[in-house]
């Protein structure tokens, strides 16, 4: 069934936009009028246009991105409708008008059209890899095969919501220290460029020998004032170079290896990746996806090249008949606790639940450690700012004290 993109006026005279599926433009206009929406323009969205939209460069689709929270909300609503007995197409008919994101609404309409034409739900979703990951598609396929689509959708929503909750907690914990650091850097930058030169110019005009701290302050202030644009350019250039290097296989490998070797952050990144691996693998196994296929899927969602390679190597050993715990041991990529818990899960025949416990343990530990780090970071920031400001004040006051001594 064709999908139409429309611009219309509602009963209050306000402009609204959206999409609707109908057999023809006439039927689409009639259905809109029945909903007290009066179309101004209506245009068919072709399959070719949808395909071009999927391959549009990222820079041109900035304003049509779909946030992960919108995907998880859509998944939760679809699971509720399917669980209530709605057929899949009817559930999507109810869901599409309630979807607020225009890009997601258009994709769901195209997916519905593919399902009506005879494609299974997982195949229709796989046409949009930027929105629906291999994990999502494979779990939906497993749910369709086993007849438990509503349960699979619920678990997908839970996985997404847990990940979003953890990200929100970490971002909230880091927001205040990062904001205060930015404000402190800006204030010090303005002091060194505008305030300090005006004050220290009084001392330089006196042509007297200045204390070492004052000379150092004057030199640093002159450097900032003269080369501030070069420093800003260097920061931007470093960011651009780092971003481009991360897109190359070698650069990505070096970056991820460096992150894992950092003293405190590396351990947190490792545990966060292991938690993501464990939760996703547990959900896939619980929904009937074979272990080798599950390992092939989860290696792409860890977010770290070294950990992904460790999982890939483990999948080869599992294919040769080795237990999963023993296959993950080489390289010390996975923490010892996770290996031991996986081993216990394999021996007890309860691997899926043990993987979820591993995820719970590491997610809680990472969130607690980040909170503790940020609570320590605040007094450290205050101490650093106090030392810097104290040095500036001391450098300015020392020549004044010496002048007072000369006057006496």
Overview of the structural elements:
- The chain has 408 residues and is mainly alpha-helical.
- It has a domain of 102 residues: Receptor-associated Protein (Up-down Bundle), CATH 1.20.81.
- Helices cover 75% and strands 5% of the residues.
- It contains 16 helices and three strands.
- The protein starts with a strand and ends with a helix.
Average residue pLDDT: 81
Q: What's the CATH architecture name of the domain at 265-366? A: Up-down Bundle
Q: Which word captures the global form?
A: flat
Q: Give the name of the CATH superfamily of the domain at 265-366.
A: Type II secretion system (T2SS), domain F
Number of helices: 16
| N- and C-termini, Cα separation | 96 Å
Short descriptors:
408 residues; mainly alpha; Receptor-associated Protein; 16 helices
Summary of the model, kept short:
With 408 residues, the chain is mainly α.
List the helices and strands and how they pair.
Elements: E1 3-9, E2 15-21, H1 25-34, E3 38-45, H2 47-54, H3 68-83, H4 88-98, H5 102-116, H6 121-126, H7 134-146, H8 149-205, H9 212-246, H10 249-261, H11 265-286, H12 291-298, H13 305-319, H14 324-328, H15 336-348, H16 351-407
Antiparallel strand pairs: 1-2, 1-3
Helix pairs in contact: 3-4, 3-8, 4-5, 7-8, 8-9, 8-11, 8-16, 9-10, 9-16, 10-11, 11-12, 11-16, 12-13, 15-16
């Amino acid at each position: 069934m064709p999908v139409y993109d429309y611009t219309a006026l509602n009963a209050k005279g306000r402009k609204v936009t959206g999409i609707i599926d109908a057999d023809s433009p006439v039927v689409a206009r009639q259905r809109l009028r029945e909903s007290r929406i009066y179309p101004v323009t209506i245009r068919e969205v072709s399959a070719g246009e949808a395909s071009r939209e999927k391959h549009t460069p990222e820079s041109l689709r900035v304003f049509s991105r779909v946030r992960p929270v919108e995907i998880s909300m859509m998944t939760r609503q679809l699971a509720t409708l399917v669980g209530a007995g709605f057929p899949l197409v009817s559930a999507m008919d109810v869901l599409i008008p309630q979807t607020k994101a225009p890009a997601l609404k258009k994709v769901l309409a195209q997916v519905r059209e593919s399902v009506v034409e005879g494609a299974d739900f997982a195949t229709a979703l796989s046409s949009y890899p930027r929105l629906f990951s291999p994990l999502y598609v494979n779990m939906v396929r497993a749910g369709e095969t086993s007849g438990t689509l509503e349960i699979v959708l619920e678990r997908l929503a839970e996985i997404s919501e847990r990940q979003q909750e953890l990200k929100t907690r970490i971002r909230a914990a880091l927001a205040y220290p990062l904001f205060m650091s930015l404000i402190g850097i800006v204030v010090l930058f303005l002091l060194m460029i505008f305030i300090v030169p005006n004050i220290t110019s009084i001392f330089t005009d006196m042509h007297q020998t200045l204390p070492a701290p004052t000379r150092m302050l004057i030199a640093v202030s002159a450097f900032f004032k003269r080369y501030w644009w070069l420093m800003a350019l260097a920061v931007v250039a470093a960011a651009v170079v780092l971003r481009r290097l991360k897109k190359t296989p070698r650069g990505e490998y070096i970056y991820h290896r460096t992150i894992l070797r950092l003293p405190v952050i590396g351990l947190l990144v490792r545990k966060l990746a292991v938690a993501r691996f464990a939760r996703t693998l547990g959900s896939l196994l619980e929904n009937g996806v074979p272990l080798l296929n599950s390992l092939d899927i989860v290696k792409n969602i860890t977010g770290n090249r070294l950990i992904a390679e460790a999982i890939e190597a483990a999948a080869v050993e599992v294919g040769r008949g080795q237990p999963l715990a023993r296959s993950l041991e080489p390289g010390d990529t996975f923490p010892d606790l996770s290996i031991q818990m996986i081993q216990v899960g394999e021996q007890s025949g309860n691997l899926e639940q043990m993987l979820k416990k591993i995820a719970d343990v590491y997610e809680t530990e990472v969130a607690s450690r980040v909170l503790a780090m940020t609570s320590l970071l605040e007094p450290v920031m205050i101490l650093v700012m106090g030392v810097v400001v104290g040095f500036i004040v001391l450098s300015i006051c020392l020549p004044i004290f010496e002048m007072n001594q000369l006057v006496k």
